[in-house]
């Protein structure tokens, strides 16, 4: 596989840039699709061919994919809030449809599609779930989860019709180059700067972004067509996560456990203000609904079939904080 041309969407973003870097390290040729407005910080020095384009332009994508043996479709509209929530669904579903149709037209040999654990139905009792615990479009909370659910089903359907696609479901990646930052990256920054004095009783699965990227390459090599693989790390309560961050930056860990119910009016006000300003709110009603569930996941299938592994989450937090500090986010 080394030396062959790999086409990556979303390569200027957090997960996409990690995938592109690992492909470069393994000796693949790189062609990266970027938007005209994209910051290129994360792909500087990779020596990649840069193609400016639009995920919904199927003809343009087909042309851009000519000569590429492999496709990593990592790009996504990763927002938990938008003035028009259905815009998130349209972007992720129609963008995925256009990319997969273009890959088929261009004769791409193998595809890794980056989905998300957002397509999986977590539990309230802290038990980790696997790839069989699936959301429906009706059960998914919020536009982002719904968008990833319908896009993943589309890829599965096309794989059943011969599209050579493998699906990966990253949990909650953290680490370097989170330039936006992602919602979890914002939590890390806010916690490190002492702006999160309390927490709600929830949990998440934290994984180093470079381990997620390595899982993408393993899926390319060993994944079964049409199958999905959770690329996760360790299950952690939000309280634990905040305590580890506090310890790493020399702050006192928060100890106040907030009930969710009284926070809903705050979320509604924040969303109302966001509708006026266009700036994403720090807390949303959907986020509070999701907090009821412990987002705990098992990567046993990926370990068994792909040889996947992940480092301890505390190392990932340490790397994330080091990058945020060097990039000036922790002022």
State the main characteristics:
331 residues, alpha/beta, Rossmann fold, 7-stranded parallel β-sheet, 3-stranded mixed β-sheet, 12 strands, 42% helix, globular
Summarize, please.
The chain has 331 residues and is an alpha/beta fold.
Give a structural overview.
The chain is α/β, with parallel strands linked by helices and 331 residues long. The chain has a domain at 5-174 and 208-233 and 296-311: Rossmann fold (3-Layer(aba) Sandwich). It is 42% helix and 15% strand. The protein has helices at 14-25, 58-64, 85-106, 142-160, 183-192, 209-222, 238-249, 264-277, 285-291, 300-306, 313-326; strands at 5-9, 29-34, 49-52, 70-73, 110-114, 165-170, 172-174, 198-199, 203-208, 228-231, 234-237, 256-257. It has a seven-stranded parallel sheet with strand order 3-2-1-4-5-6-10, with helices on both faces. Strands 7-9-11 form a three-stranded mixed sheet. Helix 1 packs across helix 6, helix 3 packs parallel to helix 4 and helix 7 (238-249) packs across helix 11. It is globular and about 55 Å long. It starts with a strand and ends in a 5-residue tail after the last helix. 45% of the residues are buried.
């Amino acid at each position: 596989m080394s030396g062959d041309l790999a086409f990556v969407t979303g390569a200027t973003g957090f997960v996409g840039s990690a995938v592109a870097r690992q492909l470069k390290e393994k000796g693949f040729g790189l062609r990266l699709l970027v938007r005209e407005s994209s910051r290129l910080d994360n792909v500087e020095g990779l020596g990649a061919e840069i193609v400016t384009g639009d995920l919904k332009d199927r003809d343009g994508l087909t042309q851009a994919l000519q000569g590429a043996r492999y496709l990593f479709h990592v790009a996504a509209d990763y927002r938990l809030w938008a003035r028009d929530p259905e815009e998130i669904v349209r972007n992720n579903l129609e963008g995925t449809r256009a990319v997969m149709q273009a890959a088929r037209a261009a004769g791409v040999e193998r595809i890794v599609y980056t989905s998300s654990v957002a397509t999986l139905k977590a539990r309230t009792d802290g038990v980790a779930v696997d790839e069989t615990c699936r959301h429906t479009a009706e059960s998914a909370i919020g536009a982002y989860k719904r968008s990833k659910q319908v896009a993943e089903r589309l890829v599965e359907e096309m794989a059943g019709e011969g599209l050579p696609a493998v699906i990966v479901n990253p949990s909650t990646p953290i680490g370097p180059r989170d330039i936006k930052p992602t919602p979890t990256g914002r939590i890390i920054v806010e916690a490190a700067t002492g702006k999160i004095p309390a927490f709600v009783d929830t949990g998440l699965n934290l994984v180093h972004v470079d381990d997620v990227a390595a899982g993408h390459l393993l899926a390319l090599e060993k994944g079964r067509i049409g199958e999905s693989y959770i690329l996760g790390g360790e299950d952690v309560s939000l309280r634990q996560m905040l305590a580890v961050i506090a310890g790493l930056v020399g702050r006192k860990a928060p100890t106040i456990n907030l009930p969710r119910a009284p926070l809903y009016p705050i979320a509604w006000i924040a969303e109302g203000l966001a509708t006026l300003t266009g700036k994403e709110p720090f807390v949303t009603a959907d986020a509070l609904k999701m907090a009821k569930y412990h987002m705990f996941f098992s990567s046993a299938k990926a370990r068994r079939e792909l040889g996947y592994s992940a480092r301890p989450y505390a190392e990932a937090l340490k790397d994330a904080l080091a990058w945020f500090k060097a990039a000036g986010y922790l002022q």
